[in-house]
Structure formats: structure tokens, C-alpha cells
Amino acid sequence: MNPKLPYILLVGAGLIIFILSCMLLSRGRRSPGCESQPHVVEKTGSTSQSLVFADLSPEEMAQVVGYLRGNLGVQLVDASRAKPSDNCIASLDVQVPAKAAVLGFLDGGGARPPREALAVLYFGNQPDPNVTEYVVGPLPRPVYHRDVTVQKYGGKVPYHRRPMLGSEYEQLGTFLKTVVFAAAPSFLTEVFEYDGTNVAFRTTAPHGFRSGDRKSWLGIFQNVSGFFLHPVGLEVLVDHSSLDTSRWAVSRVFYNGQYYRDMAQLESAYVQGRISVEKVRKAPRDGDFSSMKPRAPSAALFPLQYEPQGPRYSVRNNQVLFQAWSFAFGMSVNTGLRLFDVRHRGERVAYEISVQEAYEISIQEAMSVYGSNCPGGMSTRYMDGSFGIGRYTSPLVRGVDCPYSATYVDTHSLSENLSPSRRKDSLCIFEQNLGSPLRRHYSNLQSLYYGGLVNSALVVRSIATVGNYDYVWDFIFYQNGAIEGKVQATGYVSSSFLHGDGLRYGNRVWEHTLGTIRTHSINYKVDLDVGGVKNSLVAHDMAFEMTRAPWSPEQQIERPRLTKKVLDTEDQAAFRLQSKMPRYIYFAANSKNKWGHQRGYRIQITSFAGDHMPEASSMERAISWARYQLAVTRRKEEEPTSTSIYNQNDPWSPTVAFADFINNETITNEDLVAWITAGFLHIPHSEDIPNTVTVGNSVGFLLRPYNYYDLDPSIYSHDGVFFTSEQDVTACEVNPLACLPKAASCLPHFPPFTFDGFQN
């Protein structure tokens, strides 16, 4: 071997190391940290107009609680520990002022409306138990309260209609453990290896078959991660209508396809060998197949989105500004994320065709109707607003639930407690490059050019976990003036124990688990004010007409033509769920664009809903909003919502029946509201294990400008790209994309990952 070879190799290795070091150092100099603005919620003075819609602050909630405790003349128990026979505060929310007062303040220079709270109280400790709603004000130091229950609902709200408190669920759990299970020790120990901790239960709703009932089927599951997929075949019907929990009783028991009078009868049949036992394999604590723990190790990092020059939107108090958009947001305890005073292209005085204002866009209700051959599954009709879509808004995980660099906002609520609670990172706001052009054209005919605009939109998101389901609620703002409301469903499917003819009601997804068929329906309230408060509803569509070709009369041509119709009444504007609806339906203003057309905003619905419950059903009126894919009515202060939190537990005598809103009133040149229903049919399948994915489970609506502008407003976006064959496309002044290697080569500042959700 050449004696110089080791030295040559050593020098070569040193040279390679030197070159690599230089490259790394050079690369580091080319990639400084991005000059990004800190993602904090900016604060402005108390004069901000958007604060007229703001949620209650923790300080205001505390003031309202103190006022109620000192001025109602009754003892109020902390709802988290309340018995059915106690008085307690169930929830507080902001009482949004009347629309006329708000618009007078925003646009007319009028006085700011007094700030008030809406308090829902349960009065169980009195001769006539009932639910009462009070408006309390003015905030921040209340001095008055007024009972608005009769004004809102036409009468008192009977106590049996009250939504269940968490304390009532805990009391049912205690009853199940100490009374129900105590009656069948041999059966539970030998069949389920019951040890006092290894079972969980879920209740059904509504609670019975007629007004006044409060009887719930409690489905029993293995108490493991993802317990929703581990039914054991046992269900118990408990009558908990009495305000005295010692008088609660078992009405019926179901096990593996058979019904029993009570647990004692089931125990006797088991001991005597007169029962068909289907023993379920004991699942490990992590749930095994129901565990969401990844089955693969971490590998290459997934793509991340960042803002090389900082966020292009701002959040001040409850107001968001983004390019031509501005709006206020809030979080209702019952209905969740909502938006107010949505404006496009600045103030309405900017110029007459540039302003679009939607006074309010809010989620009204989310409903599920289930099928099964088990009693709990077949009787379930969940109305999630009753449980509290906003109350169950969950903390968002940075980088998964929303982009890592999004702005995260805390919200506050007071529900089933005497003290307000903070929901950490429960709402996120971010600009998202959707990875496709909003519009583009490549020309290779006559002239050679390219023009396009990246589809970058602002997203406001919250996610509510209501039991087994997770609903991802989005409002999306596009640069062409369109707004999208969207919900995506994920989480665990509900299941029943597979037995008998169970496959008529779903698919088998594990050994003893039936994924049960269900429908999901989502109702939105959209109060559009297009070019002013007064609007009309217009439908455009198409029809084919036969005509003779003018240049060749012996030939016929079938050509599509435009059809137009003004929908004059509420009855004409109520479109049944599966009926044909005009494909272009829009709110029309009393003004015209440059080309002589009525300026408007079109409603476009994305939905693949299952069938609606038959109207002959005794409970259908409680969910009669779901009859319609779209219904447009006159806006009335006395018709603020399409449903009520009290409908869930007494759908047979609904507190609010949406069908009554539609009474053939004229809707021409009036203040109008669109009630939009989107939904989907879910037949669970094996790919829903362990979790349902959002892909394909997204529904909602679009609000799109329709002759509202003289041309597409996105042409004024700073993000546009245009160059011709005669230009230098590598020059930044010609093509902003050519600047990306320099402008976007920085390293983003990602804050440390934190998660406080388990402390909420």
C-alpha cells in the first residue's frame, strides 16, 4: 500500500468537512428568523363597536351570579352539586340586544344599547318547580332583573323539560352502582367480571314516550379508552322523574336481545341457567382496537404552514380584520361559534357596491337520529344544543386541530357552576393557503400570458366534543367576497351490542359491536342584510326551449334559457328536504349594479342528508326545522332560534316549533332570515374504527356574491400574479413569486408546544 495514502485520505476528509461546514454556515446566514408579529389577541379601548356583541367576561359573570344570589330571595346551590330538588344557576350567556338598537348604534350614531346577561335557573325547591330565564343588567354592575320566560315561550317552562345537569348524570351513576347492580351480583361478577370500576354507561335522549317522562336507557360499556365501541349487551331503563333520588326506580332491563322486569329477574334467570349468555372478551385499559394511539412510529415531519412576514389579519377583542373583511365573533353556551356584523371591503360608506353585511350567522342545532335493535339505540334522538355545543367546545391541539402558527383564543363560560371557567385555546383563527388557485388562466392563443390568484382564505374554527362525536365548526372568508359555513364530523361512532337481526340497522365493526345507522342534521341561522336591511328572495334557474335555427329554419335547436321568479311568501320560500330547489336562490337588494342587475348574495348548500323523521311522529314538531333544506322567513325578535334547549327532554310538547314560523307572510322587501339545514347519513363501517374521519363527512353552505359587484372583487387582491411572454418572469417587480426564495427563506418562530386541555 502506498504509505502516503492515509495522509491523502485524511486531508481529503478534512477538506470535505470544511466544505460542509461552510455550506451549513452559509445556509444559516440565508435563513434568518422570520420577522413575524407575535400572535396575541390585541386589546383596544372599550369604545370598540364590536363589543356590543362580546361574550360575557369572567368579571361580568361573577357580578351576575352575585346579583342573583343576593336578589332572588332563594338559596342557590352550586349546580355542580345540585340535587333535582335544589335551586341553581344552570348557565349564563350574553343577551344580544335587539337588532334595531344595535344598528342604530353601529350606523345611526345612536346610544350604545345596555349590556345584559341571560341567566337560566332551575327552581326545584319550590311548590311549582320550573325553569326560569332572567335578563340581568346593566353590566358590569347589574341593578335589575326581569323574567322573560313567558315573553319568549308563551308560558312557564315545566321542570321536566330542563336539560340534565352533570350532577344528575353522577346521581344516575351512583344509583346504577348502589341499587341496580347490587340486585344482580352473580350475573355481573361472572359475566362481566364486574369490580365496581370496569363499566361505564351512556344515557339516551329523549327520556320516554310522552310529555312529563324522565326515563332513560343506560347502555353499559366496558370502561376502557374509546368505551363507545365496547357494549356488553346490558341496558337498564331508569325512571328518574322524581325530584327525590331515593324514589328512582328500574322500569326495565335488556340483555342480549331479551327484556326483564328488573335486575332481580335477570339475576334469577341467570342463576337458574335460563339465560343465553354472550360473554365479551375483557378489553385492556387502552381499549385495544378502540385505542387512538398510533400503530406506527413517528417518521418524517408532515408539511407545515407559516407566514414569512407575519399574520395578515388582526384580532382585537372580539373583532377580526382580514384584507377586505371585518367581523365580530362570539361563543354561545348552547349553540357555539357565531359571527356578527360581517362586512366586506370596509365600511358600507366606502362605495355602494363594496359592502356586504351579514348581521348574524350562527349555528342553531345539531341533531342525530339513531337506529338499532337495542332499546337505547333505537330510541336515541340527540339534540346537541340541549347539551351545549358551546359548553363542550374543546381545547384545540396546536398543529393538528389548527395550524401550529394560528392565533388561539381563550373563551369563558359559566355553566353548571357558580364560578366562570376558562376554555383554553377553544377557538383558532388563521389564514390558510388552500393549495389551489382561486382563479387562473393560461393563454396560448392570440396573446401569451398567465394570470392567477392563490386561494388564500381566513378560517375561524372551534371544535365541540359532544359525547362521542367531535364537530369541527368553520367559517371561511374568501377573497372574492364569499363566506363558507362548514362542519366536519369525526370522533367515535355510537354502537350497540350485536345480536339477532342487528345487521338491519348497521354494520358489524368488531366482534360484538354494531355500528348503528344514524342521520346528522345541522341547522344554521343566516340573517343577511344585502345592501341594506330590506331584501327580497329571488330564484334563478334554467329550462330548455325549442327554437328554429334563424339561419336554417328547417333545423331545431334546444337551447337553455334563464328562468326568474320572485318568491313572495314564506310558504314559497320553504323548500322541503328532498324536494327540488332552484339552483340559484339569492337575497336581492333594492339597488342595482353597474349592469342593471339587482345586487344579491346567493345561498348554495352542500348536503347529503338522510331522510327526515316522518311528520306523523309524536316528536317531529320539536325538530321541524329539519323538514327544510332552506326556509326563508321574516326576521322577528320573538323568533330568535329555530329550536330550544328544552325540546330535547319534551319533544312531544316542544317549547319552540320551527314549523310555526312559516305562516305565508309576505317576504318581499322585508328584513329576512335564511334557515339552512345541511346533513349527512352515516352508516358506520369498519373504516370508522377506531375513529370516523372528516374526509367525506363535511357539509355546510356558501354565501356567494351574485351581481353584487361590478366585477370579481378579488381582482384587487395584492396576491394576484400576472406576466406575459414578453416579460422577465424572474424579476420581482414583474412576478412576486420570483421573490419567494428571498422573502420566504426565513425560519418561522414556532412557540413551544403546550396543552392545558386536561386542566379545563
TrEMBL record:
Keyword Glycoprotein: no
Group of enzyme by EC: oxidoreductase
The enzyme's E.C. designation: 1.4.3.-
Source organism, top-level taxon: Eukaryota
Matching PROSITE patterns: COPPER_AMINE_OXID_1, COPPER_AMINE_OXID_2, PROKAR_LIPOPROTEIN
Pfam families: Cu_amine_oxid, Cu_amine_oxidN2, Cu_amine_oxidN3
Molecular function per GO: copper ion binding; primary methylamine oxidase activity; quinone binding
Domain Copper amine oxidase catalytic: 305-715
Gene Ontology CC annotation, any one: plasma membrane
Modification after translation (UniProt): Topaquinone (TPQ) is generated by copper-dependent autoxidation of a specific tyrosyl residue.
Copper amine oxidase N3-terminal domain: residues covered: 162-257
Catalytic residue list: D384, Y469
InterPro entries the record matches: Cu_Am_Ox_Cu-bd (IPR049947), Cu_Am_ox_TPQ-bd (IPR049948), Cu_amine_oxidase (IPR000269), Cu_amine_oxidase_C (IPR015798), Cu_amine_oxidase_C_sf (IPR036460), Cu_amine_oxidase_N-reg (IPR016182), Cu_amine_oxidase_N2 (IPR015800), Cu_amine_oxidase_N3 (IPR015802)
CC cofactor: Cu cation
GO process terms (BP): amine metabolic process
Cofactor note: Contains 1 topaquinone per subunit.
Copper amine oxidase N2-terminal domain span: 75-144
Record PTM 2',4',5'-topaquinone, positions in chain: Y469
Key words, A-Z: Copper, Membrane, Metal-binding, Oxidoreductase, TPQ, Transmembrane, Transmembrane helix
Transmembrane segments: 7-26
Family: Belongs to the copper/topaquinone oxidase family.
Name of the molecule in the record: Amine oxidase
Gene name, Swiss-Prot/TrEMBL: Aoc3_0
